Each structure stands twice: as structure tokens, then as C-alpha cells.
Amino acid sequence: MASSPDAAPPGLPPSDDPEVVFIIPLISRARAYDWGVVQRHLRATLGALRAQTSPRWRALVCCQDRPEEVAFDGQVSFLPFVAADVVRDETAVVFDNHAKKDLMLDHLAATHGGDGYVFQLDADDLLHPRLVEHIVADNNGAGYWIERGYMYDVARDRLAYLGPKRLRYPFGHTFLRECGSSSALRFDFRRDARCLETIRDRGKHAEVPARMAAHGLAMTPVPFPAALYLVGHGENMRQRRGKLGAKMRYMRRNRLLPRAARRVRNEFRLRALLEP
Fold first, then answer.
1. Distance CA 47, CA 65 (A)
2. Superkingdom, according to UniProt (predicted)?
């Protein structure tokens, strides 16, 4: 049967030099409770990227305000978001992430020309130093999602397990379920920008693997605990909405024992990343 004239052409195989691009939407100075806290956590997020064992990544930060405490360069760049930020009671508990993500995706399509994986990263979460290395070496051409990681309560300096239920953690939830910084979606701009349609159909973060599977992309889980989800620092959206209680209950039920917590702190370089 002849192909429909509107059908997308078959995808190219992955190249030998894919890149992981992190898109980071940042809350504006006007909407932040404490702009200094926002910048401190962004520096930690970027510090975890700069500690990656593979250099094949870049990051875009999009905001109305250029963070003055962050060093930008050829690998970490700033994309201005020019729409005025009107702060009202209702916008204090809503981020303008969607418009910023769309702008960064359009910018990526206009400037990249290659292929790889785009990772939406919240400006307060921390990634394992081997994450980029794993993605670009495995390079499955479909994408990746984070099944296992940890929740970190900044205020109380506590860590909890995130992952499938197991004997030690019978109440466990996957990292994907709890945190939006959890998936690397396939992009390929070598022919055109049609992949943006698929990326923009990602849905909610817990739905991403199923939504991508509907487009023929069989994403695979990262085979190690790959990220830290930070809560309790005052600028987390769930905390702003007064819904942090469920996270705290999860922390109590799934808290890491001291030995495991020390190992995680060392692996993720928590002390170095989060120092003032």
C-alpha cells in the first residue's frame, strides 16, 4: 500500500554522537518568594550537570530574569522569556513552565541540527554524575526514564528511597511518578522538526513512557538510581500549594538508613552542591 502523502518519513538511525540537552524553565524574580534561594538551587542543579562524566550535554535556562549568580557559557546558555510576568494571588502557585518549555524546544529545533535526547529538568533537582554517560553510550534511539532515585528534604536533611516497591520499601513509588525531572525524550532535527510534535505530546511526567510508546518509541529505564528530587526548601511548587504533607509522609515511610544515606550523599556530592 502506498504511503499517505502526510505520513512522516521513516526515522534515521541514531547518530554516533548524540547530545543530551537539558531544558530548565526558571521561576521569575517577581514570582519567587526568595530569588536568592532560587538561584542557589539552580547553581546546584547546574553544578550536578557540570560534574557529569560525559561532556556531551548542554543546558538552556529560560526565564524573565537572567540569574546574576549563575555563570553562563557555551555549554549552559540563557534564553530570555520576554512575556511580562503578572503576579496575582493565583499565579503565586502556578509556574509559567509550559510557555518557557515551548520556547526552548523551538530554539533547540532552530539551532541544533543534530539528534539526541531532550531532558526537562526542574531548576532544583540533581542528577547522578553518570546519567549523560549512560544515555549517550547506550543511545537506544527511543528515550529514557528514571525509575529509581531519591527524595531529599532540604529543610530536615533527610533522604528517602524512590523506586519500585520492595521488601525494605513496601510503600515505594517510582521516581517517574513523583518527579518531573525524570525523562529524556528522543529528538532528531537532521531532516526536519517533526519530532517536536511527539515531544509536545509527553503529557504528565508519569505518563511519558506510555505516551511515547504510542508514537513507536520504546523508552527504557535508566538502570541505576539517577536523580535527587528536592523538597522542603521553600520554592517547591507542591509546598507553595500547601500540599507538602503527602511528601513528608512518604519521607517517613521510605527514609534511608544512615549508611545508605551517606553513600547517596557522596555519590551525588550533596555537600559540595548545596553549600551556600
1. 20
2. Bacteria
